[in-house]
Recover the amino acids of this structure.
């Protein structure tokens, strides 16, 4: 079944090492990250002095969050990452966060259980909620909203966010605006665009031929598996069962995703980004609790 997981997060840099490991690269990135936070605040009209003060406080808070985080190696220990917990026990096990409101706002009200991944990190984060000043938390959330929105705002915000990403990744230059536009449409409406493309260039008879070809390949492979003399009988049977469960995906789905619940307005670029994000979130969250083979028809 699809399940909802609660795990560590909340950092503006890739992982805890950027905050806690003392080498030249990470020290340099810390200086640049604080400057980036201050620059984004300045672009919203905050004074130079206030922007720097906010940046210092936000960085200090994220550093404390990073101290609670598991390392990358620890987070690869899957057996330690699977910790089912009844929703009713969240507030008792991890006091400090308004869990009932969190569950409502994330549209998970119908779930009885969540999977907690890095348990000590969640505990550390909820402890910080009570300990750190509310004003700092508010500025921290403001910054992350601005940072997430920056690629879709005016040129100054786009350039500032790109310069930060360039420092992180080494990407030499910002993509042309038309390319970023195409990327955004593909990311937000990929299957809807694909349906138009298929209607023009991939007729049903072409898909039928490809489907038939793959079915024949599977049939031939099954016959070959049945005759293998180097496999033990029980291994051979398991291999054939695995092959029978193979689900070919040729060209496009048998049933297209329903996009009728998403409204796109030609004069509201940022609003469209928000609407598409919310629409996709609803689509994904609707899967929670359902069998893995079940995909909702609509994000509405």
């Amino acid at each position: 079944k699809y399940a909802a997981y609660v795990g560590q997060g909340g950092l503006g840099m890739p992982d805890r090492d950027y905050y806690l490991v003392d080498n030249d690269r990470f020290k340099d990135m810390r200086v640049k990250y604080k400057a980036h936070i201050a620059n984004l605040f300045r672009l919203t009209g905050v004074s130079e002095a206030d922007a720097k003060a906010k940046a210092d406080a936000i960085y200090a808070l994220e550093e404390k969050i990073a101290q609670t985080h598991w390392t990358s190696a620890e987070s690869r220990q899957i057996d330690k990452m699977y910790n089912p917990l009844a929703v009713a026990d969240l507030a008792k096990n991890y006091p400090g966060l308004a869990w009932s409101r969190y569950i409502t706002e994330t549209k998970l009200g119908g779930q009885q259980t969540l999977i907690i991944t890095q348990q000590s990190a969640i505990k550390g984060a909820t402890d910080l909620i009570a300990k750190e000043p509310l004003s700092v938390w508010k500025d921290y959330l403001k910054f992350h909203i601005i940072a997430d929105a920056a690629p879709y705002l005016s040129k100054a915000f786009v350039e500032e966010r790109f310069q930060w990403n360039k420092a992180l990744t080494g990407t030499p230059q910002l993509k042309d605006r038309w390319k970023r536009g195409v990327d955004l449409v593909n990311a937000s409406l990929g299957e809807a665009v694909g349906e138009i493309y298929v209607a023009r260039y991939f007729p049903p008879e072409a898909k039928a031929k490809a489907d038939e070809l793959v079915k024949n390949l599977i049939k031939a492979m099954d016959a070959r598996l049945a005759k293998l003399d180097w496999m033990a009988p029980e291994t051979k049977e398991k291999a054939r069962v695995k092959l029978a469960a193979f689900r070919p995906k040729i060209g496009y789905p048998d049933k297209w995703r329903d996009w009728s619940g998403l409204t796109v307005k030609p004069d509201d670029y940022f609003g469209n980004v928000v609407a598409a994000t919310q629409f996709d979130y609803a689509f994904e969250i609707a899967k929670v609790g359902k069998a893995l083979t079940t995909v909702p028809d609509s994000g509405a």
